[in-house]
């Protein structure tokens, strides 16, 4: 019985701190603690300003330019003390930027536009990809190479890609009854196991992964079938863009991004190496696969537009095409949601 | 109130200690061997063509080749440990509050049930906006622990024998004194069982939360392994997660066993709650509307106060008023209602199917266990680990074998509802009074009668376990809808989260939570009735 008196003493001290509703108090403490730490003050020109950038996925070669910028001290050179925050399958970037927990975010265009339509105060300030990287991946033996091949098929789509998928279907006049959509979670297993006939993948990821694993695939780029899109867009709060100090920080971030991506595009193995061996070390990435992905990604990042105007540039024509694509899918995009103003500052010497 | 959790330690005195131990060890190994055999066969047949089930040795090889995911493991472990700690501190506070102020009991436990079935997939995207990613993971881990643990602690605290409490009362001791001197001592076995049972939840909560992203962690590594089609690695990570959560359960159970002691009491004392000292007449008559209203008012007040005090962005944080307006008077309210309640209908169906499948399997398993101690020793420990398997890793396999419709959802959900039901039933069946057992022997009745009699005594346990299993079923259904079927509230949550549609997201989460609170409250009433009527 001695054990118990010891225990009861220990518990007694806890009861001393009586709480009416234990759980709520606990939750409140958690929330308030975080609220204290979420205000970021912009420091003067001398010391580097702490800035957070939110990715929409894990730290792999998809973010090669940012990883290079961090590793080579390009952010620091522009007076920014950068924290790069990884995303994941369940994360939405827009709320994180909206709440001020990140100054800049990299996200999908459709979700950014939907967030703005749902009341978020955001502006799209640049496009990492000039072409829409989403594609339908199918098995080579049972290929889906045009939208009409989709009829009667079962397609796997991850929850976060559903807005894009629905928009694509509408763009091609396919009703949701003509194709079966099932939710899968960023995992090509259901295709290989035969559970689905195809899935919405990322041009630079799954096709390469499956190829390496000896699975022959067919890819159909959404970009080629009525769904051109500026993608991997950079977003910031509109109110930040109106605040002189914040705007300056954003411009400096984008300068570093531009320089980082220029280096990454010139040498695909640079970003791949950083992802595999440094920033995404615990993800156990395959270097070979990351280099292949970086190489194919270059085709999306660099275009005639970017050669003329600079990386991330969003031409009026591309913005119009993007707005049209998204509107087909029921996302009421407008050209006003996109702005090259920050990029103009980035590239004006 | 009956056994909510698995008082493995309360299975009665163990005779012939050492040989028994060796024997049960061997039997567990035999059970594992059967499981391993089934795995190898499955991998060689279905798995080979679909490339979805790797052979065990490939998985072990991946585990070694990847160096046991050291950094990832530490990261997730640290999140889970803190989640476990805070979740249990909150559970102890909640349990003690319930005893000191019995009027708050219903309210607190309903709130606890709400935290259990508010799914991480829904809470995560909201939480991460307000706190940093690390805190988000810890909070989700704590939320996965809190309810299971609080249920066990409360059960423990109310399992003091009535005679001891009456003695204290007669001697002039107050409630606090009774809590300190009597209830705490009686509380240890059931509370410890509840805390042990909550341990796997801490790790699984952290893993699901890691699907929000991160640089390191088992969940993060699993996302990457799944996307990179590294099937053996995915299995290796799932296996590792399962082993660690199961180990967490075992370690906490063993520590608990050290603190537990043999109760000198009559047959029905352990696990079964002593009757409450006081019963309020108005409690028994009709639905206590005033109480429900008071609860709603308190929750709404705290909700408003938090938003106001923390100056939360009105786009991200919705008030109860916003949600009500969204569903009633806003533009398109009718459409909002049809979307939300349409999804609710599907989720109800999915949860019910999952609950029924889980319970049916648990009943069959509990009855087979009554027959054969060999089966019990072989498979009970393995069944216990079922709830340690991360659902996110299980989904592709279940999706392939059972499809991504009602059956698939039912199976995924059943993995959550099966364990609490099995555990409670097993304990319930064993709680048959000695006198009834003697009577069975004396009349030389056959196994049919034996099962019938035991089942009668186990009925209250079925209702008790429903109180945990049904919020669990709602949680499982929402998660399965999110991961696998693209229907119901789970899908609505995923979609509104992806589109930053916070009005729909908050409304969906609120509806899910209210649903489980209502079920919990109804089942609590049903349980008191069942216990009164059917208790030995």
Which features would summarize this protein structure in a list?
heterodimer, A: 349 residues, alpha/beta, D-Maltodextrin-Binding Protein, domain 2, five-stranded mixed β-sheet, 16 helices, 10 strands, 46% helix, 16% strand, globular, disordered N terminus, B: 536 residues, mainly alpha, MetI-like fold, 3 domains, 22 helices, 79% helix
Please give a quick description of this structure.
The complex is a heterodimer of chains A (349) and B (536). Chain A is of the alpha/beta class.
Greatest interface and its participating residue counts: A-B, 89 and 97 residues
By DSSP, the count of extended strands of chain A is 10
The CATH topology of the largest domain in chain A is: D-Maltodextrin-Binding Protein, domain 2
Number of helices of chain B: 22
How many strands in all of chain B?
A: 0
Q: Strand percentage of chain A, roughly?
A: 15-25%
Overall 3D shape of chain B: globular
**Named CATH topology of the largest domain in chain B:** MetI-like fold
**Helical proportion of chain A, percent range:** 40-55%
| H/E series of chain B | HHHHHHHHHHHHHHHHHHHHHH
Low confidence ranges of chain B: 1-17, 262-286
């Amino acid at each position: 019985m001695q054990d118990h008196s010891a225990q009861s003493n220990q518990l007694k001290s806890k009861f001393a701190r009586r709480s009416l509703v234990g759980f709520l108090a606990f939750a409140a403490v958690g929330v308030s603690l975080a609220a204290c730490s979420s205000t970021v003050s912009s420091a003067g020109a001398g010391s580097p300003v702490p800035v957070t950038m939110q990715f929409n996925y894990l730290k792999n070669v998809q973010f090669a330019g940012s990883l290079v910028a961090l590793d080579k001290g390009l952010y620091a050179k522009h007076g920014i003390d950068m924290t790069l925050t990884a995303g994941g399958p369940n994360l939405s970037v827009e709320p994180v930027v909206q709440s001020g927990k990140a100054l800049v975010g990299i996200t999908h265009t459709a979700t950014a536009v939907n967030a703005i339509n749902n009341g978020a105060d955001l502006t799209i300030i640049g496009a990492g990809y000039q072409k829409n990287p989403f594609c339908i991946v199918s098995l080579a033996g049972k290929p889906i190479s045009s939208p009409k091949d989709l009829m009667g098929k079962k397609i796997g789509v991850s929850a976060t890609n559903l807005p894009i998928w629905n928009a694509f279907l509408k763009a091609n006049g396919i009703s949701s009854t003509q194709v079966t959509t099932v939710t899968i979670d960023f995992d090509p297993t259901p295709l290989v196991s035969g559970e689905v006939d195809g899935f919405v993948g990322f041009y630079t990821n799954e096709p390469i992964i499956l190829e390496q694993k000896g699975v022959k695939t067919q890819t159909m780029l959404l970009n080629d079938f009525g769904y051109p899109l500026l993608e991997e867009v950079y977003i910031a709060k509109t109110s930040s863009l109106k605040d002189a100090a914040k705007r300056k920080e954003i411009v400096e971030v984008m300068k570093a991004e531009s320089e980082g991506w220029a280096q990454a595009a010139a040498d695909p193995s640079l970003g791949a190496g950083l992802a595999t061996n440094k920033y995404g070390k615990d993800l156990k990435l395959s270097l070979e696969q990351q280099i292949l992905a970086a190489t194919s990604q270059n085709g999306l990042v660099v275009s005639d537009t970017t050669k003329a105007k600079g990386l991330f540039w969003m031409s009026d024509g591309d913005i119009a095409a993007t707005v049209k694509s998204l509107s087909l899918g029921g996302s009421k995009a407008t050209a006003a949601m996109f702005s090259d103003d920050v990029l103009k500052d980035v590239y004006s010497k | 109130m009956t056994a909510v959790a698995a008082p493995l330690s309360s299975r009665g005195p163990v005779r012939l200690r050492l040989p028994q131990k060796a024997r049960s060890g061997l039997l567990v190994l035999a059970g594992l061997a059967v499981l391993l055999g089934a795995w190898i066969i499955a991998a060689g047949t279905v798995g080979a063509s679909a490339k979805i089930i790797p052979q065990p040795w490939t998985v072990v090889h991946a585990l070694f080749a990847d160096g046991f995911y050291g950094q990832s493991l530490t990261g997730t472990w640290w999140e889970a440990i803190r989640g476990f700690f805070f979740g249990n501190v909150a559970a102890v506070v909640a349990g003690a509050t319930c005893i000191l102020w019995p009027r708050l009991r219903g309210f607190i436990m309903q709130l606890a049930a709400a935290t259990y079935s508010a799914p991480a997939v829904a809470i995560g995207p909201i939480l991460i906006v307000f706190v940093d990613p690390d805190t988000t993971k810890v909070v989700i881990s704590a939320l996965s622990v809190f309810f299971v643990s609080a249920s066990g602690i409360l059960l423990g605290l109310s399992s003091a024998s009535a005679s001891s409490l009456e003695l204290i009362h007669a001697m002039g001791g107050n409630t606090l004194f009774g809590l300190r001197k009597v209830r705490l001592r009686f509380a240890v076995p059931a509370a410890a069982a509840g805390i042990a049972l909550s341990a796997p939840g801490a790790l699984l909560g952290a893993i699901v939360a890691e699907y929000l992203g991160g640089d390191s962690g088992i969940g993060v590594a699993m996302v990457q392994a799944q996307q990179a089609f590294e099937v053996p690695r995915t299995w290796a990570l799932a296996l590792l997660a399962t082993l660690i959560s199961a180990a967490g359960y075992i370690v906490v159970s063993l520590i608990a066993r050290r603190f537990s002691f043999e109760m000198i009491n009559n047959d029905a004392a352990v696990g079964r709650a002593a009757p409450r000292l006081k019963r309020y007449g108005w409690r028994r008559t009709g639905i206590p509307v005033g109480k429900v209203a008071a609860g709603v008012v308190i929750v709404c007040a705290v909700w408003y106060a938090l938003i106001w005090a923390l100056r939360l962005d009105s786009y991200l944080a919705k008030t109860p008023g916003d949600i009500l307006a969204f569903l009633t008077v806003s533009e398109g309210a009718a459409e909002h209602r049809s979307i939300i309640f349409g999804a609710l209908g599907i989720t109800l169906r999915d949860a019910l199917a999952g609950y029924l499948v889980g319970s049916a399997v648990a009943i069959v398993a509990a009855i087979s266990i009554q027959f054969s101690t060999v089966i019990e020793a072989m498979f009970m420990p393995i069944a216990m680990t079922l709830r340690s398997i991360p659902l996110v890793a299980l989904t592709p396999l279940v999706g392939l074998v059972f499809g991504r419709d009602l059956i698939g959802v039912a199976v995924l959900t059943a993995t959550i509802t099966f364990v609490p039901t099995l555990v409670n039933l097993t304990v319930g069946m064993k709680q048959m009074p000695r006198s009834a057992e003697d009577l069975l022997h004396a009349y030389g009745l056959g196994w049919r009668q034996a099962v019938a009699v035991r089942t009668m005594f186990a009925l209250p346990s079925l209702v008790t376990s429903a109180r945990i299993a049904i919020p669990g079923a709602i949680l499982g259904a929402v998660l399965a809808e999110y991961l696998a079927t693209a229907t119901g509230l789970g899908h609505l949550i995923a979609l509104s989260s992806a589109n930053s549609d916070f009005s729909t997201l908050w409304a969906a989460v609120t509806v899910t939570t209210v649903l489980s609170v209502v079920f919990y409250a109804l089942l609590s009433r049903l349980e008191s009735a069942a216990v009164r009527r059917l208790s030995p």
